[in-house]
Design goal:
Mean pLDDT: 96
Helix content: under 10%
Number of helices: 0
Structural class: mainly beta
Number of strands: 11
Order of helices and strands: EEEEEEEEEEE
Distance between the termini: 40 Å
Shape: globular
Low-confidence stretches: none
Largest sheet: 7 strands, mixed
Radius of gyration: 14 Å
Strand content: over 45%
């Protein structure tokens, strides 16, 4: 059974930094495209950043230049480094794993980590 567990959320002042981690268990990370999504109250869940199994990354325009996604296949972990945080970054952040190597490959989600940016 594949499980994703996020960690590293919290409360930080505007301009600060946080590093989210997503630990994948039950399957090797290397076969998955990984993504970070977020959902603020009253909003739909949106893509923040994703990284392919080959290491190609894509970012939402709102976080380009401030966030960095990375993966460590040896540790089955994906990170999201968030710098220059803004109040509008406040949301629950979710990690997703998607096996794109097979047609209609399975997707798995973590339980979410709260990130709050406030002074």
């Amino acid at each position: 059974q594949v499980q994703l567990v996020e960690s590293g959320g919290g409360l930080v002042q505007p301009g600060g930094s946080l590093r989210l981690s997503c630990l994948v268990s039950g399957s090797p990370l290397r076969i998955y495209d990984m993504g970070w999504y977020r959902q603020a109250p009253g909003n739909e869940r949106e893509l923040v950043a994703r990284i392919s199994s080959r290491g190609t990354s894509v970012y939402a325009d709102s976080v380009k230049g401030r966030f960095t996604i990375s993966r460590d296949n040896a540790k089955n972990t994906v990170h999201l480094q968030m710098d220059s945080l803004k109040p509008e970054d406040t949301a629950v952040y979710y990690c997703k794993a998607h096996n794109t190597r097979i047609i209609e490959g399975p997707e798995y989600w973590g339980q979410g980590a709260q990130v709050t940016i406030s002074s």
